[in-house]
Design brief:
The complex is a heterotrimer of chains A (143), B (410) and C (570).
Chain A lengths: L12 H12 L4 H10 L4 H10 L11 E6 L2 H5 L2 H12 L5 E2 L5 E6 L11 E3 L2 E3 L4 H11 L1
Parallel strand pairs in A: 1-3
Antiparallel strand pairs in A: 1-4, 2-3, 4-5
Helix pairs in contact in A: 2-3, 5-6
Chain B lengths: L21 H9 L1 H11 L11 H10 L6 E6 L8 H8 L1 H15 L3 E6 L4 H16 L15 E6 L9 H8 L23 E5 H11 L10 E2 L2 E2 L1 E8 L5 E6 L5 H8 L9 E5 L8 E2 L9 H6 L8 E6 L4 H15 L5 H20 L5 H14 L3 H4 L3 H10 L12
Parallel strand pairs in B: 1-2, 1-4, 2-3, 7-11
Antiparallel strand pairs in B: 5-6, 7-8, 9-10, 9-11
Chain C lengths: L1 E5 L2 E5 L5 H7 L23 E4 L6 E2 L10 E3 L3 H17 L6 H4 L8 H9 L22 E3 L9 H9 L5 E4 L6 E4 L15 H5 L5 E3 L3 H8 L5 E6 L9 H4 L7 H11 L3 E4 H21 L6 E2 L4 H10 L13 H17 L6 E7 L3 H7 L9 E4 H10 L21 H4 L6 H15 L17 E8 L2 E9 L1 H12 L6 E5 L19 H15 L9 H11 L5 H7 L9
Helix pairs in contact in C: 10-12, 10-16
The chains are: A alpha+beta (143), B alpha/beta (410), C alpha/beta (570).
The structure holds flavin mononucleotide, iron/sulfur cluster (4 copies) and FE2/S2 (inorganic) cluster (FES) (2 copies).
The site of one iron/sulfur cluster has 15 residues of chain B, from α12 and α14.
Chain lengths: 143, 410, 570
């Protein structure tokens, strides 16, 4: 019977991964194994899916994920100088997390606020028209 | 002074109780065939970048047999410089919803998805709410306005992969796979989501379709010229005084007017060097060549494309190699990694440009051209095929300044 | 009827097939890399692109169906130039920094990349190699991965997933970080890999190969204090000549024995002898389970890839496995006890080397339950390479015979090398033991052939035996699911590799599409040529029981020849 039912009604793996990521802040191994069971996929396969998407993590991240756009429109508006400042302030390269697990830095592509660049995202919150000082202020507010 | 024409842009449309759903009501009244005919006659072309005529897509999908059919609204907007779909999702989500309903009704689908990129958390929040209220109000999941049409709609969040904007990658992603493109044919129309016939449409295309069917804006289909009908949302960014979202009628405004009137000209007394007219997968238009009306065919004639509507002004103060590296990094990082020409080609291009920047050594244009050709001719999806459009056009136009020699795409 | 034109030739086709297949019919070779017969189409390498009239962009021949009226150019200048450029890109990721890399590579003598380079006439290399700096994955006792040589063609992924039904590999990450790897980069030894080695057979490069023990074996042969005996598995003799002759299906048992003697082994024995012994033990177990309401169906236990598979994926069925060790391990146990005694050699001095068509045997030899039975396992490929490096002209060797005590075997043992063989060997013996009468027709056709799953009902003296034979782990899984769904069997032969051991992951890598048929024919030919074709007729087996093991299933037989299994997590 279940096989006849449209796949539309099956939970989407992508959405499941989002929920797990929201719950734990990353996707723990035990959950990957559950998913592999549930979706009848090899666990390597599930890992392949997770690692494809930049917003999923298989290791714990910092409390604040800082995403800074360096795509063309922001780049034209000097996102690179913001990036340099944030990198040296946090002592991180892209994809790295501070030792106190507070910040994870991600240099990302376009965040869809290109008319108001440079753009920075802290977890789900967007900050537009930032510059070096504003970026550091935002980070300080997280402390 | 060039004017905007406002249809898609406008006041916030968030309150479902006060929204009249005039377009879908109209469609239900005139029936499927006439709905499709109207969209076909309107000359509407897809706004997701490929510009495929929406009416024809719907007509083909309506004719395909399938156990079930799907409509997918592509809201994975990720082309750098583009933010129009986000605007529509955040400010005019009811239009988007109505567009999805129209497409589904027209092609005979009773299930639909909207795939919103994961970074658009505000859009996701707003649209989830819209879906929920629509369900409560029996707009979704129930026979609509006493017709026999009923639609179920699910929202899927992307998770940070530009390539998922490609319709076949998007379908893989919804299916919970790596977002790699599929080999075409079969096209989604025949075998898409869960192997069923699937119509994928861009957010803006669907909103345009809603305008076409809206009895209050009958003139919408008359706007523009043959081959470029209706209005277009423009995302102005870069070195402009007044960047932002604008809506223009096709062919009634020149690119120069877009840059200097709407965009308020170049910031800080700099001179414009070129315009990237449709996002970084399109070839640049030099500052001295902007005086032509904005239309699909005008760009095609100039070897470029209006792409996603991201109009990016670039002044002379920027280092061209730096910009090429920026674009090249984008493609290198965002390839799905499936096909060798795109994955390895973009990696090598980035390496070559980096070497140029670091050592100031002469670049083998022949090599860039060979790699560029290889990617364009042999890559598996649009990402790869168009990945060198910007870079090669910069080299073609400014090669001498860059100490590049030779000819690209000889 | 469909008409099209390829390279100016008019072709007519009955049905829609890919451009690649159509070109093959017209005797046109299009280079391919990610394509493999029997696996799903990947369409990633794009080496097979061709020009289709009227289209600007090129089309992948492997993934494009030919259409009425299509005009195709497979080797136009546009296409040839592009392939060369593309190949430069591929080679740059392959990190060959100097020729030496190729000289020491496992695929030095049959590298697909080199073949393609020749086919497309590669003449220049303008790109510097990309160094990813990946380290070698040597976490496994059986299969080694050298990611630096991996070009991400995806064939191993599809082989493991589609044919073997396991899914050890995946493509991970995106963009320039895209790699083929195991779950969380764990390494093959730390995941549910069965060690079957099928992925090695699919790899076009030297990125996958067995864990080499060639050097250790050469060292031990030089150790005068050791008595080194060697055993050869049934499937080796029908494949060992391939790397020398480039043709499949030749039988070279005699040359094999001569070569091993020349290499300096102190005694050259046959795993076939232990295969006959296995039949005695496993056959006894089967009869015992049937007569005494034991756990049925009985599963064969001679394929270590299958053993690890069931330990990972169906641990609830471990009791169904025959407790009999595999022939390789039985041989080792007997060599170090019985043979030691008969030959008057201190068992500590005896070193057992196996020549196997199988990579999983390397892991099996290391299992703690039977550690010490076998000391080194070489694949057929490794042996071929040793023979070459010793300057032995294999094809022209004179033939010689195995040493007697553990070297004589029946035709039933020979067919262990193919799918269905263990079943047929067991049926031959079981029928005669149960009925006490001589078999009329000795061949059990129903369990022969290359189908993935074969089922048969066999009459044995009034008893109806429901038998099944599965080869390839994908098929093994299907049969396990049939059992779970309630289908009933009495006796099932499982072999991890498609075709059985003759298609093992340690066999020479062949470009002959019909290699399995040819090897199988050769195996049946050996069986047919033998006078003694039933295990229980082997006089040396009788002697072994009389002088040492008492009878099948005895206490001492159990101690030496049987083992236990354990559930493993995924
Ligand atoms: C790499 C790539 C990215 C794309 N990104 C988007 C996107 O973000 N949004 C979109 O609507 N279409 C995108 N497209 C185009 C889609 O494949 C598809 O053509 C479009 O969604 C169809 O809708 P339309 O006909 O309404 O334009 C992309 C295509 C490619 C090759
Ligand atoms: S062209 Fe690029 S993005 Fe498209 S399939 Fe190939 S690797 Fe993936
Ligand atoms: S796989 Fe690579 S290193 Fe090995 S022989 Fe072929 S080209 Fe040389
Ligand atoms: S050895 Fe077998 S199980 Fe292991 S990865 Fe290779 S094909 Fe898969
Ligand atoms: S290991 Fe071999 S078969 Fe697997 S992807 Fe790499 S090159 Fe291909
Ligand atoms: S380019 Fe930075 S937000 Fe779009
Ligand atoms: S062989 Fe056709 S794409 Fe690889």
């Amino acid at each position: 019977m279940d096989k006849l039912k449209s796949l539309f009604y099956q939970d989407s793996l992508l959405e499941k991964l989002h929920q797990i990521q929201i719950t734990y802040g990353y996707i723990p191994e035990a959950e990957i194994e559950n998913l592999s069971e549930k979706y009848q996929l090899a666990r390597a396969n599930v890992y392949g899916v997770i690692s494809f998407y930049s917003m999923f993590y298989t290791e714990p991240t910092g409390k604040y994920i800082i995403r800074i756009c360096d795509s063309i429109s922001c780049h034209l508006n000097e996102s690179d100088s913001v990036l340099r400042a944030v990198k040296s302030y946090l002592g991180l390269k892209s994809h790295q997390t501070t030792e106190d697990k507070k910040f994870t830095l991600e240099v990302v592509e376009c965040l869809g606020h290109c008319g108001e660049g440079p753009v920075m995202m802290v977890n789900n919150k967007i900050f537009t028209k930032i510059n070096k000082n504003k970026a550091l202020e935002i980070l300080n507010d997280c402390m | 002074m060039a004017q905007e024409k406002l249809y898609l842009k406008g006041d916030k449309l968030l309150d479902i109780s006060n929204y009249e759903f005039k377009s879908i009501k109209n469609a239900l009244r005139i029936g499927r065939e006439k709905t499709i005919k109207k969209v076909k006659d309107s000359g509407l072309k897809g706004r997701g970048g490929a510009g495929f005529p929406t009416g024809i897509k719907w007509e083909m999908a309506a004719e395909v047999e399938g156990k079930e059919k799907y409509v997918v609204c592509n809201a994975d907007e990720g082309e750098p410089g583009t933010f129009k779909d986000r605007y529509l999702l955040e400010e005019r989500p009811l239009k988007v919803l109505e567009g999805i309903m129209l497409a589904a009704y027209a092609v005979g689908a009773d299930k639909a998805y909207i795939y919103i990129r994961g970074e658009y958390s505000k859009s996701i929040e707003i649209f989830s709410e819209i879906i929920e209220t629509a369900r409560e109000k029996k707009i979704l999941d129930a026979n609509l306005f006493d017709s026999d049409f009923k639609l179920e709609l699910k929202l899927i969040r992307g998770a940070g992969a530009y390539v998922c904007g490609d319709e076949t990658s998007l379908i893989n992603s919804i299916e919970g796979k790596r977002g790699r493109s599929r080999i075409k044919p079969p096209y989604p129309i025949e075998k898409g989501l869960f192997k069923q016939p699937t119509v994928v449409n861009n957010v803006e295309s669907l909103c345009c379709a809603a305008e076409v069917l809206n009895p209050d804006s009958e003139e919408f289909s008359e706007l523009g010229i043959k081959g470029s009908k209706g209005t277009k949302l423009l995302c102005l960014s870069g070195d402009l005084n007044k960047p932002g979202l604008y809506e223009v009628e096709f062919a009634q405004i020149t690119l120069a007017e877009i840059i200097y009137d709407l965009g308020g000209g170049i910031k800080g007394n700099e001179d414009l060097r070129f315009v990237i007219p449709g996002g970084i997968s399109t070839a640049v238009i030099k500052a001295e060549d902007l005086d032509f009306p904005y239309s699909y065919q005008a760009f095609e004639k100039r070897g470029s494309s209006l792409g996603s509507g991201a109009v990016i002004a670039v002044s002379k103060k920027h280092d061209l190699i730096d910009l090429m590296l920026n674009v090249s990094r984008f493609y290198m990082d965002e390839t799905c990694g499936t096909c060798f020409p795109c994955r390895e080609g973009n990696r090598q291009i980035n390496k070559i440009l980096n070497a140029f920047k670091e050592e100031d050594r002469k670049i083998e244009t022949e090599l860039i051209s060979d790699i560029g050709n290889t990617i364009r001719l042999a890559a598996r999806c649009g990402l790869g095929q168009s990945s060198l459009n910007f870079i090669t056009s910069v080299i073609e136009n400014y090669g001498k300044e860059l100490k590049f020699g030779g000819k690209i795409y000889a | 009827m469909l008409r099209a034109e390829i390279d100016g030739l008019n072709i007519e086709l009955e049905e829609k097939i890919s451009i690649l297949d159509a070109a093959k019919k017209a005797n046109i070779n299009i280079p391919t890399l990610c394509y493999e017969d029997g696996l799903s189409i990947y369409g990633g390498c794009r080496l097979c692109v061709v020009e289709v009239e009227g289209e600007d962009l090129l089309k992948p021949a492997c993934a494009t169906e030919i259409e009425e009226g299509m005009k195709i150019k497979t080797h136009s200048k546009k296409v040839r130039d592009l392939r060369k450029n593309l190949f430069e890109l591929i080679i740059a990721t392959h990190n060959i920094d100097c020729q030496l890399n190729c000289l020491t590579c496992s695929r030095a003598s049959n590298c697909e990349l080199k073949d393609i380079a020749e086919d497309i006439g590669l003449s220049k290399m303008r790109l510097d190699p990309i160094k990813r700096g990946d380290s070698v994955d040597n976490s496994s006792y059986a299969v080694i991965r050298e990611p630096e040589k991996c070009i991400s063609c995806n064939r191993c992924i599809r082989k493991c997933e589609e044919v073997q039904g396991i899914g050890i590999f995946t493509t991970a990450n995106r963009g320039p970080e895209t790699v083929v790897t195991t779950f969380k980069d764990r390494g093959m030894g730390n995941v549910e890999c069965t060690n079957c080695g099928q992925c090695i057979l699919s790899c076009p490069t030297g990125a996958l190969h067995e864990l080499y023990q060639k050097e250790s074996v050469l060292d031990i042969l030089n150790d005068e204090t050791k008595h080194v005996v060697v055993q050869t598995a049934p499937a080796v003799r029908v494949a060992i000549s391939e790397p020398f002759s480039n043709q499949a299906g030749d039988i070279s048992t005699g040359q094999l024995v001569t070569a091993l003697k020349r290499l300096g082994f102190d005694a050259v024995f046959d795993t076939n002898f232990a295969a006959d012994l296995t039949i005695m033990e496993e056959g006894t177990e089967l009869i015992d389970r049937i007569n005494n309401d034991g756990k049925l169906p009985l599963f064969t236990s001679c394929s270590p890839g299958w053993i690890k598979f069931i330990e990972h994926f169906y641990p609830e069925y471990l009791d169904n496995l025959s407790s009999a060790k595999s022939p390789q391990q039985m041989f080792g146990a007997v060599a170090k006890s019985y043979y030691a005694k008969e030959a008057g050699i201190d068992s500590d001095k005896i070193v057992v080397v196996s020549i196997m068509p199988c990579t999983a045997k390397k892991f099996e030899a290391k299992r703690e339950e039977m550690a010490g039975d076998v000391d080194y396992v070489l694949t057929t490929r490794e042996l071929a390479s040793i023979i070459k490096s010793a300057g032995i002209d294999f094809l022209n060797l004179e033939e010689s015979e195995y040493d007697e005590l553990l070297g004589v075997s029946s035709g039933a043992a020979d067919i262990f090398g193919t799918t269905g063989g263990v079943m047929e060997a067991a049926l031959r013996t079981a029928t005669e033991l149960i009925t006490g009468e001589e078999l009329g027709k000795i061949e059990f056709e129903a369990v022969r052939g290359l189908e993935g799953i074969k089922k048969a009902e066999v009459e044995i003296g009034g008893l109806k035996l429901r038998a099944a034979v599965a080869n390839g782990l994908g098929n093994a899984r299907k049969v396990m699911e049939m059992i779970k769904d309630g289908e009933e069997f009495d006796f099932i032969e499982f072999m991890a590799c498609p075709g059985g051991c003759m298609g093992g992951g340690g066999q020479p890598i062949s470009s002959d599409k019909n290699v399995l048929e040819k090897r199988q024919q050769a195996i049946y030919k050996i069986d047919k040529s033998k006078k003694m074709r039933k295990s229980h007729e082997n006089p040396y087996i009788k002697k072994l029981y009389d002088n040492y093991l008492e009878k099948p299933g005895s206490e001492i037989a159990h101690k030496l020849l049987h083992t236990k299994y354990k559930a493993r997590k995924i």
